[in-house]
Amino acid sequence: MTPADRPMRRIAFYLPALAAGGMERVTLVLAEALAARGYAVDIVLEYGTGGYLDRVPPTVGRVVLSRGPKWPSYLALIRAWPREGLAQLGRMVWAGDNYVPLRRLAALVDYMENTRPAVIFAAHGRIPHLALWARRLARVSPRVAIIEHSTYSPWLDTFTHDRRTDALLHYLLSLMRRLYPTADAIVGVSDGVSDDLAAVADIPRSRITTIYNPVVTPDIEHLAAQPVDHPWFAAGQPPVVLAVGRLVEEKDFKTLVEAFARMRGKGVLARLVLLGDGEERARLLERAQELGIAEDLDMPGWVDNPYAYMARAGVFVLSSLFEGLPVALIEALACGCPVAATDCPSGPREILDHGAYGPLAPVGDAGALGKAMEQVLTSPLPRAQLTARGAYFSVDRAADSYQALIDRLIGNDS
């Protein structure tokens, strides 16, 4: 069915905000692609904030939910779904701040009733739960499809030392086990995410569909060819080891810094550039100084066009403790950049086809990661082979899969 033949149906993507992250970027790309195929598409946000807020395409609507009083929402949820309403009221009264706030629930219900989306895709944290509660309250019944962007079990392992975060994660897990089965569809962005969700949330694997994110857009080649305003990327300079992402604990840039130091200690001439911002910046710089490589490390912060850096780097490295489907790793391939990655759950093994497109190192192993980086710098794969693999994760392929899912949920002739 062509866009001209397709009945105009409204699709909504519900997110907390539009932070400058991988999940938000692929959501905007997918929303624009579906709008081009004849759907009316909205981005619905809890908060009108984030670095990507001004990147909502003109063909896509942007809705920011208003904050309302909490008590009417609790009472409405108790009437419509007593078990859930009473449970949430109890959490709010006795669990401190360890509960799901409902102040935007009424605005979400109003959106459903007034706009009448056929399908709402809900992603991240508490958002799927709020979407399912709102549908129970609304006088309309849109299909609710959950998109899971990350493996959940590593979060449980990572924050065992943080009682507050650990308690919240286990609470959200209990909600997942109760509420996710009531969704009309559940999507994992990689087989690893889908497998983990099935195991941790006790959901039949057959109920979860894997759809790879729409990462590679038609403009990447043009953006990759743009100049880079950084002296280390000039012709004749030593090769650059590049990483892109938030400077946070789960990205494990500390291990990358240590791996780079080990590689430099073996006489490999190179420099390290980390693109991104986050709370780990000071610790990473301190560790680089301890290892004697501070002069070979630069952290320019967040940049508008990382593709130009990727196209000129000697190797792109993903050092994460865990992922869902790491967007930056795919983007680097699409730019023709040789890559190395940790074999973290999940995504790198699927993206790199078990190491065929770049070596995989054990998580947290600086020695093994350093060897992988050196291997890539010494014997990189042909650029055409890398770009062809990146192209597999295209916008059109993802849009085809989501269109098929939408048609299954609402029917071609709805």
CATH topology of the largest domain: Rossmann fold
CATH architecture of the largest domain, by name, is 3-Layer(aba) Sandwich
- In whole angstroms, the N-to-C terminal distance is 13 Å
Instruction: Determine the strand fraction and express it as a percent band.
Output: 5-15%
Produce a short descriptive summary.
The protein has about 425 residues and is an alpha/beta fold.
Blueprint of the fold:
Blueprint (H helix, E strand, L loop, with lengths): L9 E6 L6 H15 L3 E6 L15 E4 L5 H11 L1 H13 L10 H11 L3 E5 L3 H11 L5 E6 L4 H6 L4 H17 L5 E4 L2 H11 L6 E3 L9 H5 L15 E5 L8 H13 L5 E5 L5 H11 L5 E5 L4 H7 L2 E4 L8 H8 L4 E4 L5 H4 L8 E2 L4 H13 L4 H9 L3 H16 L4
Parallel strand pairs: 1-2, 1-4, 2-3, 4-5, 5-6, 6-7, 8-9, 8-11, 9-10, 11-12, 12-13
Notes on the protein architecture:
The protein is of the alpha/beta class and 414 residues long. The protein has 2 domains: 10-214 and 394-410, Glycogen Phosphorylase B (Rossmann fold, 3-Layer(aba) Sandwich); 220-391, 3-Layer(aba) Sandwich (Rossmann fold), CATH 3.40.50. The chain is 44% helix and 14% strand. The protein has helices spanning 22-36, 70-80, 82-94, 105-115, 127-137, 153-158, 163-179, 191-201, 220-224, 253-265, 281-291, 306-312, 327-334, 348-351, 366-378, 383-391, 395-410, and strands at 10-15, 40-45, 61-64, 119-123, 143-148, 185-188, 208-210, 240-244, 271-275, 297-301, 315-318, 339-342, 360-361. Strands 3-2-1-4-5-6-7 form a 7-stranded parallel β-sheet, with helices on both faces. Strand 6 (185-188), helix 8 (191-201) and strand 7 form a beta-alpha-beta unit. Residues 1-6 have low confidence and may be disordered.
